[in-house]
Amino acid sequence: MRCGLPHPRAPREWEGHRPGANALPSRIVMSLPVPDVREFFAPAGWRTVDFVSDLHLEAEHPATVDAFTGYLDATPVDAVFLLGDLFEVWVGDDALQELGSFEQSIAAVLRRAASRIPLYFMHGNRDFLVGAGFTAATGIPVLEDPTVLVFAGQRWLLSHGDALCLDDVEYQKFRAVARNPQWQAQLLTRTLAERRAQGRSVRAESEARKQSGTGFYGDVDTAAAMQWLQAARAPALIHGHTHLPADHTLGEAGGAVRTRHVLTDWDLSAQPPRAGALR
Question: How buried is 58 (Cβ within 10 angstroms: 0-12 exposed, 13-18 middle, 19+ buried)?
Answer without folding.
Answer: middle
